[in-house]
Specification:
Largest interface: A-B, 20 and 26 residues
Radius of gyration of chain B: 16 Å
Order of helices and strands of chain A: HH
Structural class of chain A: mainly alpha
Number of strands of chain B: 9
Number of strands of chain A: 0
Oligomer: heterodimer
Radius of gyration of chain A: 14 Å
Number of helices of chain A: 2
Shape of chain B: globular
Largest sheet of chain B: 7 strands, mixed
Shape of chain A: elongated
Largest sheet of chain A: none
Helix content of chain A: over 70%
Strand order of the largest sheet of chain B: 3-4-5-2-1-9-8
Number of helices of chain B: 6
Distance between the termini of chain B: 41 Å
Amino acid sequence: MSLIEVNLQRSPYERILAHQRALAMALALRAAVERERAGA
Amino acid sequence: VPELDSLLDRLVRGRVEFVVVGGFAAVAHGVTLLTQDLDICCAFVPENLMRLQAAIADLHPVHRMVPSRPPLALTPEGGVGLQNLYLATDWGQVDCLGSIQGVGGFEDVTAQSISIRLPSGPCRVLGIDALIRAKEAMGRDRDREAVLQLLAIRERLGRDAG
């Protein structure tokens, strides 16, 4: 099942919450990469 | 970490008259792209601008497109004539737009919006057809990607309805 299909089974609010979790994860990853680069 | 959903809740609880547009509206319709700023179309009338300001006052809003980043300090008289507000807050960026390319002014945007339920109350989001037109009018790479997904979602929803 594609990610869009998964999203379509959610309510708009659930989509926003899922987006929020994904964004938090992406930003944490980016921060970790930036820390790694700064330390290298 | 930006708390855009909470920012949204703030605006709803603050009884700001607005419609969610842009990337966040696309997310609400099922698009899988990530976005970091909240774009809203709102009524640029003094009462609404003062409600907006009050709703985010403790989040230290500043005008982010002005190099000195002055704090948001609207007065009922001073808001007259404003068309857009580009703000940065402790919880993320909020762009408040008076009109949306490809759709029209606040009244047109509202007429082409849907209502969704948030824990804080009902919230209006630009409808999928209008959002596609708005994204097509913007024409940036990320808009084109969003349009592709929105077209697929619309087709999929059409299949379900038919």
